[in-house]
Amino acid sequence: MRATLEREVLQVLWSAAAPRTVREVLERVNAQRDRPLAYTTIMTVLRRLTDKGAVARHESGPRHRYEATARDETELAVLRLLADHGDAALAHILRLAATNPVFLRRLQSVLRTVHPAEHRACRPDPAEPARPWTDVYFGPDTPRPPAPGGNDTGDWTRWIAG
After folding, report:
1. What is the distance, to the nearest Å, from the Cα of residue 27 to the centroid of all Cα atoms in its chain?
2. What are the tens digits of pLDDT across the range 37-86?
3. How many whole angstroms separate alpha carbon 147 and alpha carbon 49?
4. Contact assessment for residue 139 and residue 159, using Cβ atoms and an 8 Å cutoff
5. Which of 16, 113, 129, 131 makes an SS bond possible with 135, Cβ 3.0 to 4.6 Å?
6. Is 37 within 8 Å of 45 (Cβ atoms)?
7. Domains present along the chain, CATH in parentheses
């Protein structure tokens, strides 16, 4: 029941144009139900979602307003993955792209869909010889991968965008 109710609350927040109060969330959730829920139930669900990082709480006078921290369930799952596994998750994605041509094509397709203008800017010059992905990711002068938690700010997405 709790996961279903959390999903209902998140659906209300995802469809909202601005952060919502507990009362506003309650009204929208109850509009879809035969038996109305109590104010404290929605307040508890919002607190739990805030504790999980799925919802942000903003002070707005005597009331708090709540908004989702992700645009949808998929983005929320990605944020959880990154929070739980950090750079290791990104490293696995890069290894998959480097070793699996089908995965690389899917990733390139998604990048073109999500950021079409950036994809055009990242397209390599056909006159340049192809470089191994490690040179693009780590840089040609880097003798080894950057240390975990280091200050490497290189743009690893450039070699994927192809």
Report:
1. 28
2. 999 999 999 999 999 999 999 998 888 999 999 999 999 998 889 889 98
3. 33
4. no
5. 131
6. no
7. 2-68 (1.10.10.10), 86-161 (no CATH)
Q: 151 pLDDT exceeds 90? A: no
Among residues 86, 84, 105, the alpha carbon closest in space to that of 96 is found at 105
Name the token pair of 153.
Answer: 């700010």
pLDDT digits (tens, 9 = 90+) for 80-103: 898 899 899 989 988 998 999 999
Give the sign of the dihedral formed by CA 149, CA 150, CA 152, CA 158.
Answer: negative
* DSSP characters over 77-89: HHHHHHHHHHHHH
Nearest to 68 by CA among 152, 1, 11, 136: 11
Number of residues in the chain:
162
φ and ψ at residue 54, rounded to 5 degrees: -85, -20
Element of type H or E holding 59: strand 55-60
Q: Per the structure block, which two tokens stand in for 109?
A: 């397709």
User: Is residue 55 within 8 Å of residue 66, measured between CB atoms?
Assistant: yes
| Percent share of the chain, pLDDT over 90 | 49
Q: Is 146 helix (H, G, I), strand (E, B) or coil?
A: coil
